[in-house]
Amino acid sequence: MHKLYFATANSNKIKEAREACGLVGIEVVPIKLDIEEIQNIDGRKVGVHKAREAYKILKKPVVVSDTYWDIPSLNGFPGPYMKDIDKWFSVENWLDLLGNKDKTIICHENVVFADENGHIHWFGKNYIGVFVDKPLGSTNIHNTALERLISFDGGVSTLASLHDEGKNAFNPEDYCWVDFPKWYAKKYLSIDKK
């Protein structure tokens, strides 16, 4: 099996990457790198910077994942600042902030690959979800306040409740990840798997 380095320590991201990349015979090898993430309102710039920094440190082709959230009724807040905001906000803070506003939220998931020459290849997908009225899922260290409130199946489950069950929010075929391994396999493994 072909090995691909993935700069992350996030177990949920590793699981998603392995499921999608496994479909085309790519073994995902997680590697923890100390990368300082830039702050920028443009999520694409954050992801590209992260991939470039990972490549500089590893000096090998590497993939990173960067996700940010957009709440249209809050003018796109929190955007790429999600990681920091989610450290501060509780479930109650999120619900108070939204009040009676539209509870739609968009997850922008991005997979960014730095190739053997350090060139950047970008793959992205958006998922539309909603805030639920009451949190679902445990409060363990793997579930953030936001993850306990966001549903992609109309409120039946949240990201946190799915994590608790060992499940992901989407089927591997629906991940942003699925486009990347197909491209990667065609380019590096001389195969065209669907």
Key structural traits:
single chain; 194 residues; 6 helices; Maf protein; 7-stranded mixed β-sheet; alpha/beta
Task: Give the gist of this structure.
By secondary structure, the protein is α/β, with parallel strands linked by helices. Helices cover 30% and strands 25% of the residues.
Question: How many individual domains?
Answer: 1
What is the count of DSSP helices, taking H or I runs of 4+ residues?
Answer: 6
User: Uncertain regions: pLDDT < 50 for 5+ in a row?
Assistant: none
Task: Indicate the CATH architecture.
Answer: Alpha-Beta Complex
Helix content: 25-40%
Shape assignment:
globular
What is the succession of H and E elements?
Answer: EHEHEEHHEEEHH
For the termini, the CA-CA separation is: 17 Å
What would you report as the Rg, rounded to the nearest angstrom?
Answer: 17 Å
Structural class call reads alpha/beta
Mean pLDDT across all amino acids: 89
Remind me, CATH topology? Maf protein
Biggest β-sheet: count, sense, barrel? Answer: 7 strands, mixed
Q: What's the total count of β strands?
A: 7
